[in-house]
């Protein structure tokens, strides 16, 4: 059985319907999972990421609070100590020696004149050497080594303006000794006696363990995690080299900020924009709280910091931090999530992802967790796959059971019935109707099949019963068909005869219009040729008078007895006659009149030649012809009808084609006359004729375009039908285009028309360059359907 036969069986179709229904159910389940399940699961997964992010923030805040408490205690201790070098060296030296390895330096930095009168710089600073031991550093008190005073540095000034008990954290920078990222915690130092500002206590915190902590959390969460400081400068990143750069102020290297990374990797822009918006909100909140204090602090921080090491943006952020931290609290229960961002193509993960942005209290650091969407949807995808697999496994037994039931109780009876019906069909085709009785359909337990069997058997009985009557009817019908065929053949012969007469009538009508135009064209040059000849005759009388005067003078000269006075008189008269002829320019007038007359004669000759070329009486057979010659000849013949039109041609160089030039001229003249008649009398008519070779180099293409009234769509579909015309009654027979179509088709070509109402019409003729012999083409009936 063929594929079409197998697909045409009822059981196969039923199974296909069941399979399609099951696929529709799977599709609906899939849509529910996609539109409802996956968003909910993704929301739940996102909640898990947010909870983990809050846990990370809380764990970092423990370390931050530890350093913050250390700075607060050190500030209180330093404010209460007497201002003695040995005491500060011993007290803070012991404190720094006991510091965790992550504290790589720190000290007490006194404001000018606050440690001793007239002493600009006095600091007690400790830093770890290359071996990791904490050592005292004195170079910050020496002007020659540190010309830029520490009390104008970018971490010192914000602490000066801080009006709270928390550290002011600097931006992230690279430690020149360990080459690791580091930040400075600065806390204002107040004199315990008068509570006056004495200076700043600072601790330098190494961030190497922060990066390791982020990596541990990254392994737990998935995707990647990084931290940025207040100014969105990176504290950590999965690939440290991507966010580190060297600058003139920090040749050892410093961390770039988020906007700088976005400029290098545009796919990071959504995250950078979110971080920027969070900082803008921070500044807006500070401005709303106390704009005057915010502006004063920002300008002071910017103006008093040396070497422009702090930007205007950073000074505003520090000012906002100082102002808002007064009311800042830390609660382990609160969520620190501030934004969720869709990242179409993360440059690290190289796939779509979702970024979760968290803000850290007091420091306003931001932590970003970038989670690939594939991870967020992995649970939903697994659930969807398991559900669909379970449905498929459950459907297969159902499908097999259904197939068995249909085959046992429905398909097999139908197959037996179809075989018997096929045998009946073969007997009917062989006209063996009597044998149908032996192929009646058996009874069936299926009610529907039983009904079909009974009705079919009844039909067999009727067929056999009416076999004889059908045979007689068939013989009668064959006779009627033969009679009708003979009548139709006679009608066709008459129709062809009528066609010949109509074609001749149309040709005579066209010839009549052409002759009338030619007569008009000949009459004009003939008229002015006659007038010129009459003028020539009038001017010749002047020369006759000159000849008469000359003869009289010659006779007087020959007569020896002639009077000299008489001779002189005759000479004067002859000369006067010559002068008058010269003055009147009779000779020039005669030459112009003769030239004009010759031009008129040439025009008449041109019309005669064009008329001969148009009719081609002496060349009516098929020959090699340049279609451009046919166009030129037909334009001359139609000149009288086209005299009010602006006729232009664009004729390309064409190869010769085999055609009947007389018939092609008839088609072109018909199109030219139709174009002239389609243009309103009060309209400036234009007719444009082009000829070219088509792109395949196999056909010559002629286009006749006018700017007439155009033809509507309904009429355009019928213009090539016989007797159909858009002209008024009596103005046309409706055969011109029908005959033109027949002529072009007999040449193996085609004719088509396009038109826009109110703009004009274009007729396109296509004739093959190498066509079959014209004489061998049968004449197509003009009125065939």
From TrEMBL:
Source taxon at top rank: Bacteria
Q: Which residues form a coiled coil?
A: none
Q: Which UniProt keywords apply?
A: Membrane, Phosphoprotein, Transmembrane, Transmembrane helix
* Enzyme Commission number, as recorded: 2.7.13.3
Q: Which reaction does it catalyse?
A: ATP + protein L-histidine = ADP + protein N-phospho-L-histidine
Q: InterPro entries recorded for this chain?
A: HATPase_C_sf (IPR036890), HATPase_dom (IPR003594), His_kinase_dom (IPR005467), HisK_dim/P_dom (IPR003661), HisK_dim/P_sf (IPR036097), Sig_transdc_His_kin-like_C (IPR004358)
Q: Does the keyword Membrane apply?
A: yes
Q: What class of enzyme is it?
A: transferase
> Which residue ranges does UniProt annotate as crossing the membrane?
12-33, 387-406
* Residue stretches making up the Histidine kinase domain: 517-771
Keyword tRNA processing applies: no
What CDD domains does the record tag this protein with? HisKA, PDC1_HK_sensor
Q: Name one Pfam family in it.
A: HATPase_c
PANTHER family cross-referenced by the UniProt entry: HISTIDINE KINASE, SENSOR HISTIDINE KINASE
Its protein name is: histidine kinase
